[in-house]
Amino acid sequence: MEITTPVIIFGITGMGCGLLLAIASRYLLVKEDPRIEQICNILPGYNCGSCGYGGCSDYAKAIVTEGKPINLCAPGGKETLQKLSEYLGVKADISERRVAIVLCKGGDNVAKRKAQYNGIADCSAAELIAGGHKACSYGCLGLGSCARVCPVNAIEITSDNLAVVHPELCIGCGKCVVVCPRHLIKLIPETRSIHVLCSSKDRGPVVKKVCDVGCIGCGLCVKIANSPALTLDGPLAVVNYSHPLENEEIIAKCPQKTIEKRPGTITRSS
To answer: Structural domain tally of the chain?
Structure first.
C-alpha cells in the first residue's frame, strides 16, 4: 500500500499535466501563414543566402511577416520575381539577371610564379603566406576557394590554375565574390559581353614582367571606345558595366590581348 499510493498519485498528476499541455497546445498554437509555404515553393530553393537570410524559408517568412522586398533573390531572376509579384499582388522592378565573372586571365601558362605553394588548397590561406605564390599580387591564385562555395558548380578551375565562371550555370548568388581574397570576381549584367580581364594596379613595365596578358594601361582601348563604358583607373582599363560596351575593335587592338568577348557559354576544359 505504501508503494502503490505514490505511484497512483504520480500517475494521476502526470495525466493531469498531459491533459493541460494538450489543451494549452490547442489554444496557444501559433499557426504559420500559409503564404510562407507558397512563397517557399516559388523560390528556387538554393538556400544560397544571397538575399541576406539563412535560406529560402527564412526569406519567405521575412517577406510575409516583415514586408521585405520580393526582389532580393538573385538566383531566381525575372521568372521568380514575376511569380512572386503575381502571387502577392505587388509590383517590383524586374532587374536584369546578373552573373559572376573573374577579372583575371593570368593562368600558369601566361603568368609567372614567385614561389611554389605547398599549403592547403585555399586562396585566403595562400594570400596570408607572403602575399600568395603568384608574381602578380593582383592575379587569380587558382586554388578553388570560389569553386568550392558555388552551390551550382558554375566555376571551373582550369588546367593552368585559373578560375573561370560558366555564365550559363551561374545563379548570381555572389558567394564567390565574397570569398575571393583578391576581389577579382564581380557580378555583372548577363548581357555584357566585353571584358577587361585584368585587375592589376601596377604600371605597365611591372605588369609585363609578371604576366603576358595583363593590362599595361596604354589607354588605346579607351580612345577607340570613346565611351563612358570604358575608362582608365590609374594604369588599368576598367569597364563600367552600367553602360553598354559594343565596340569590338578594342579586342583586336589590345596589345596584351587582355580584352575578351565572353559569350553566354564557355566550353569547359577537358
So the answer is: 2
